[in-house]
Amino acid sequence: MMNNIYYFFVVLFCLFVFFLCWHRQKEVLKKHLQEFSVNHPDVPKIKILIAGQVGAGKSSFINSVNNAFRGRITSEALVDQSSGKSFTKIRGADGDLPFVLTDIMGLEPNVLEGSQPEDIINAIYGHVKDEYKFKEGEPLSHKSEDYISDPLLSDQAFCLVYVVNANTIQYASDRLVDKLRIIRKRISDKRIPQVIIMTKVDEACPLVYDDLKKVYTSKSVKEKMHLCSEMIGVPMNCIFPVKNYHNEIEVDNDVDVLILKAFDQIVNFEKCVNK
Questions:
Q1: How many CB atoms lie within 10 A of CB 22?
Q2: pTM for this one?
Q3: Strands 46-52 and 157-165: what pairing?
Q4: In whole angstroms, what separates CA 161 from the centre of its chain?
Q5: How do residues 112-153 score in pLDDT, each as one tens digit?
């Protein structure tokens, strides 16, 4: 009887420590990111390019990063699921932080829809002027006045973040996967990190829907990550499951922790590349 009571309190204590540690992670991650500094005189802020299909959650991810840092719901990145006309508007995670998040019109499977691989590659290398409106089926020409032929180091993106929907990754067409592989092959030679943000994981697993803290132990989420890794060729440790803010009116600690964990890992890639 005494042993049962002892083990009960041990388990209870472990659960308490787990939830306390999870709660404290948010402030630890925020502090780490707020203290980050760019170690290059010509680069005041690091630029991160966000790409993905229409409705995958690009703008929502940018807003979620803002929410996590500011402690309130924001909507700086406009979400347009109907047309996916996401232009290259520079949006910082926070005004005082050295991060710039840039999104691009949805990458679609059909040849004449959405942004093309060449558009994304040009944007990564800094050849695209801010506020340029991408055109479906018409990649930016090097002859265009919106093309920067000799970009500065600060114009270039140090990392490509591709946003995918956990609920639809298994239905991704071969054309879309081919586009992603083309981009991956073209920028890998330049040692540009490529990561995947897997959104809507709460909808992919009932256990995670009830408790986001179970995302890393969810078999369903892990299977989605494996599938994504095999299809696109991105290693498992470069795929980060998150839940974006969508219709919430207040911030949530568990949502913030997943968002900040993913963003912290993205920023860590910058350190590895620029050692």
A1: 14
A2: 0.84
A3: parallel
A4: 5
A5: 565 678 888 999 999 988 777 777 777 888 888 889 999 998
Closest C-alpha to 160, from 128, 120, 127: 120
φ, ψ at 228 (rounded to 5°): -60, -40
Distances (CA, A) of 240 to 123, 162, 270: 23, 11, 16
Determine the straight-line distance between the first and last CA of the chain, rounded to whole angstroms: 58
**How far is it, in rounded angstroms, from Cα 241 to Cα 42?**
33
Q: What is the length of the chain? A: 275
CA distance 63 to 86: 13
* pLDDT tens sequence across 182-227: 889 888 888 899 999 999 999 999 999 999 989 989 999 999 999 9
CA atoms within 13 A on the CB side of 125: 19
Q: Which CATH class is domain 2-273?
A: alpha beta
Token pair of 228, please?
Answer: 């994504």
Give per-residue pLDDT as tens, 200-210: 999 999 999 99
How far lies 35's CA from each of 30, 69, 231, in Å? 9, 13, 36
Closest CA to 227 of 181, 160, 171, 161: 171
Asked if residue 72 has pLDDT above 90, the reply is no
| Helical (H) or strand (E) element with 63 | helix 58-70
